[in-house]
Amino acid sequence: MGAGAAVVTLRNIIHSAVAMMVCFGSLAGMYALLGAPIVAAAQVLIYLGAISVLILFAIMLTQAGDANLPAPFHRQVPVALVISVVIMGLVGWAAIQTDWGMATQAAEAAVDAIATAVFTTYALPFEIISLLLLVAIIGAIFLARRPEDDERAN
Amino acid sequence: MGIEGYLIVSALLFGIGAFGFMARRNAILMLISIELMLNAVNLSLVAFNAFLPPDSNTGAVFALMIMAVAAAEATVGLGLVIAIIRTRQTALVDQYSDLKE
Asked: Minimal Cα–Cα distance from B100 to chain A, Å?
């Protein structure tokens, strides 16, 4: 939680990225507490491993120097603050007010049951996601290609 | 901790992500905020899966799918941001005003 708040308020973007990694790690711990170890493992692999490194590389590629840091926020801060507080309040109020019935103890989600569900009931979304990842890779390569390579090819 | 605790943490995290997306000037920080919001939704999905239906794995499967989609989104988003930064030499979104009349 505190790490999540630090992500959006810190002035130096590298510090925010490290706070984001702390936040993702604690989320993985919460998944493990909720009895979903496979989701916790995927969180550690994908977010702590892949996405954090990707974002750190992007920051390294784009930040020229840290001499004069620009102001981190722009003029919409009051509006954004009001909207986000309203979102937090409404969703939190709904979560408190609703009677969740029997919900007291977290149920264990077995890994083999999840695997069976992924490859039988949700086989079509699984395949679609693989296609989506392929399209994303091709699109990222196309976007990140340097323009001079293009000219050399012609 | 009951389901309310997890849902409140998820709501706060989503609000923080929304605030960061609306208020930060750096394009990469906006992408990080989107990741925070996706993680908040993931947390609430896993919490619902653990607490509400006794034997069903739909929430965990959905959380895994959302993680894959988030990875794809982060890849394309960072590619776009790097391409824009390479042409505009700045990462601040309020200076991307070429389309303004």
From this structure: 17
The minimal CB distance from A88 to the residues B11, B58, B75 is found for: B11
CATH code of B21's domain: 1.10.287.3510
Bridge partners for B26 per DSSP: B92
Is A72 in Cβ contact with B25 (below 8 Å)? yes
Q: ipTM score of the complex?
A: 0.79
- Chain B residues within 8 A of A87 when measuring between CB atoms: 11, 14-15, 18
> In chain B, how many domains are there?
1
Tell me if B53 is assigned to some domain. yes
Do B46 and A31 contact (CB within 8 A), yes or no?
Answer: yes
- Spatial CA neighbour of B36 closest among B73, B80, B3, B88: B73
Q: Angle at which helices A52-62 and A13-33 pack, to 10 degrees?
A: 180
CATH of domain A1-65: 1.20.120.1200
pLDDT tens, per residue, chain A with 154 residues: 555 555 555 656 677 777 788 888 888 888 888 777 888 888 888 888 888 888 888 887 776 555 455 665 666 777 778 888 888 888 888 877 776 665 556 566 677 777 777 788 888 888 898 898 899 888 888 877 766 655 555 4
Q: Which domain range does residue B36 map to?
A: 3-93
